[in-house]
Amino acid sequence: xxxxxxxxxxxxxxxxxxxxxxxxxxxxxxxxxxxxxxxxxxxxxxxxxxxxxxxxxxxxxxxxxxxxxxxxxxxxxxxxxxxxxxxxxxxxxxxxxxxxxxxxxxxxxxxxxxxxxxxxxxxxxxxxxxxxxxxxxxxxxxxxxxxxxxxxxxxxxxxxxxxxxxxxxxxxxxxxxxxxxxxxxxxxxxxxxxxxxxxxxxxxxxxxxxxxxxxxxxxxxxxxxx
Length: 226
Description:
Strand content: under 5%
Helix content: 55-70%
Oligomer: single chain
Mean pLDDT: 79
């Protein structure tokens, strides 16, 4: 079997948080069993949402959760800076015409510098998060792929197709019956092999520490509006 190519990770970021977990669990009973054997000599095909399988393993949920917590301090730092910027803007707005042109320019400059610092810090944090997400996913995907291969060989599949949605290319699988989907079965097989227990339920979607903020130019005639 040829290894499937690893794609981008937006879907993993969503799945790792548990979004769709209820639907995933509801289909477990039916999907856990291997599809019925094909007739002798026929090609036996299975499909798997590979990114979902990686993210929904107990190890994946644990690892992505730890990554989320690692960047929580950076999110808090950026939130504090954003609140400070908003406060400065409100103060400037409330001052109206009471400020001299020089004082207004000084405050506008301070806001502009803090917005640029926020943007730089946010971009750096986002890049670091995405790089670590790629590494975390790639390392686990290597191991889950081994389980896919073993499961396919043990159950007589000759082809396994990846049904993971991708923004870069057309779907690999346009349609497949439920009986051919081995996603849940692979997750269960991997969990049994790894021995890692299911983590406690968490809320929120793992995401980059903060979206970058667009710095808007300021003028001397009017204070920036909230």
